[in-house]
Design goal:
The chain is of the alpha/beta class. About 40% of the residues lie in helices and about 10% in strands. The chain has 2 domains: about 280 residues, TIM Barrel; about 40 residues. The protein contains 11 helices and 8 strands. The chain has an 8-stranded parallel barrel, surrounded by 5 helices. Helix 1 crosses helix 2. It starts with 19 loop residues before the first strand and ends in a 5-residue tail after the last helix.
Length: about 325
């Protein structure tokens, strides 16, 4: 099985008493044309560590490298694809999918993922966060019926709605029936880049996703990681907003999912979900129980505040303070 978090020490080998807290560039990269100025803004909010997200255009790279060389910031993690392929000017983490049935798309995913691994190593990031593709449907996509039902019953508790749960079970069965070729391709794609990641000293953080048809299915995550070869440089990356959305869909229980995945946890994307179901909101803007989530934090983990560009500076500051209070609280 893949190594547990106890053996996934920091790349620098430095012991830590608390997790590393950083801010993702998802919040601000779109409004910057200079990577150094972007790093200055983030450092000015009190962040020594930042995550380079999947919206880093190639034009931002020189300034980022300068900021790293001067010690203005350190890079906690990066997010595939980083930097973006030449000519792509917007965040595009699913531009190429490792599950694709197209050999040309797989070639592109492999090429740009290896390039992202190289860049993560260059900037000293220990982790590259990755999406693992999706199951494609030409006709009769089960997610459409689920969305339609949820829209008709907005505000209701879907997780206790018997009709919805019956539809969910039927949809999951349809998804599993369609899944094998896509999931097999994902596993083959992962195998094709793991050697490169190990050589570069970069761990792959496989992130839980928010959409119904994205891979792997939440119930399968533990078995998937347990079956990977022991030397695989990978672990589980938990996104709080995505898990909350899946909980509201009745797909998982947030606490139980974290309990199951705890042996493989290496990092978190921290953000809230508001009453309208919009994620990447400031911590405290919704009802996610971050106190519960903090019970699973360990000193070797990376905690990344991952916000929408619409979040205000004050919301970023308040979120940082709330997470730091939990880091310093009695649960840690």
């Amino acid at each position: 099985m893949v190594q547990s978090v106890d053996s996934l020490a920091w790349s620098a080998g430095v012991a830590r008493s608390q997790p590393m807290l950083s801010l993702s560039t998802s919040w601000c990269s779109s409004r910057h044309t200079d990577g150094y100025a972007m790093a200055q803004e983030m450092a000015g909010l009190g962040f020594k560590f930042i995550e380079l997200s999947h919206g880093i255009r190639i034009t931002l790279v020189p300034g980022i490298l300068k900021a790293c060389a001067e010690g203005l910031v350190e890079i906690s993690s990066t997010h595939n694809f980083c930097p973006l392929p030449t000519g792509v000017m917007h965040a595009a983490p699913n531009l190429f999918q490792p599950s694709s049935r197209s050999s040309r798309e797989i070639d592109q995913w492999l090429r740009h993922t290896k390039r992202s691994i190289d860049f993560a190593a260059q900037v000293g990031a220990g982790v590259l966060v990755c999406h693992l593709g999706s199951v494609e449907f030409s006709w009769f996509d089960p997610a459409r019926k689920l969305r339609a039902y949820a829209d008709r019953h907005a505000g209701s508790d879907l997780a206790s709605d018997k009709k919805y749960l019956a539809l969910l079970a039927k949809s999951l069965a349809r998804l599993r029936e369609r899944m094998p070729p896509f999931w097999n391709q994902t596993k083959a794609s992962i195998a094709a880049v793991c050697g490169h990641a190990k050589e570069k000293g970069v761990k792959l953080g496989f992130e839980n996703r928010e959409r119904f048809n994205e891979l792997p299915l939440d119930a399968d995550y533990g078995d998937f990681l347990a079956e990977l070869p022991f030397e695989t440089p990978a672990g589980y990356w938990h996104d709080t907003g995505h898990a909350d959305l899946k909980e509201k869909m009745g797909v998982l229980n947030h606490r139980e999912h974290l309990e199951k995945m705890a042996p493989w946890l290496i990092g978190f994307h921290l953000h809230d979900v508001d009453e309208a179901g919009h994620d990447h909101r400031g911590v405290g803007a919704g009802k996610i129980d971050f106190g519960m989530i903090s019970e699973f934090w360990r000193p070797e983990h990376r905690l990344v505040l991952e916000f929408s560009p619409r979040i205000s500076v004050d919301d970023v500051r308040r979120s940082k303070e709330r997470i730091e209070a939990l880091m310093n609280g009695p649960t840690n």
